[in-house]
Amino acid sequence: xxxxxxxxxxxxxxxxxxxxxxxxxxxxxxxxxxxxxxxxxxxxxxxxxxxxxxxxxxxxxxxxxxxxxxxxxxxxxxxxxxxxxxxxxxxxxxxxxxxxxxxxxxxxxxxxxxxxxxxxxxxxxxxxxxxxxxxxxxxxxxxxxxxxxxxxxxxxxxxxxxxxxxxxxxxxxxxxxxxxxxxxxxxxxxxxxxxxx
Length: 197
Prior knowledge:
Elements: H1 2-13, H2 26-29, E1 44-46, H3 57-67, E2 72-76, E3 78-79, H4 85-89, E4 99-100, H5 103-117, E5 127-132, E6 140-145, H6 146-149, E7 159-163, H7 170-177, H8 183-194
């Protein structure tokens, strides 16, 4: 989004005509999983952590959304046409194999940051929906706790995750319960979510 805005501003500065043509996007397609778009707050991105780099800026946005009861759409990292530090330093145009973050990796990293920050934005029993290939014929969904989603395999990319907010409507619950990893833990977590003030 920032890149598109930057390109548009540069085109305007240079008097280059342009037209924005909307395309299919996860930002609108996520509504097909049964969650009401007007119950979504700020969208965040989750990057692949390294041993020395674990950015947690996403956490503050999730916390803000949680405080007002809104869902958070988490966009997962994609690494394509990336060079290793060594190849970059040596000027070699050798690229690493593509990597696509999974719902399981995202849930694990989210819990790792909550464990470090301990601010209660979410916990291992927080309800979330993992999705893969939204809008495709082989779309997959799984609803469960973050802990359960740490072990979920939704297959090929692209994946996204939605952390549910306390304003979740019963129709939303009914729609996603069909894809619950475990109906009993889903009901327990739903009850806890519904009772948060």
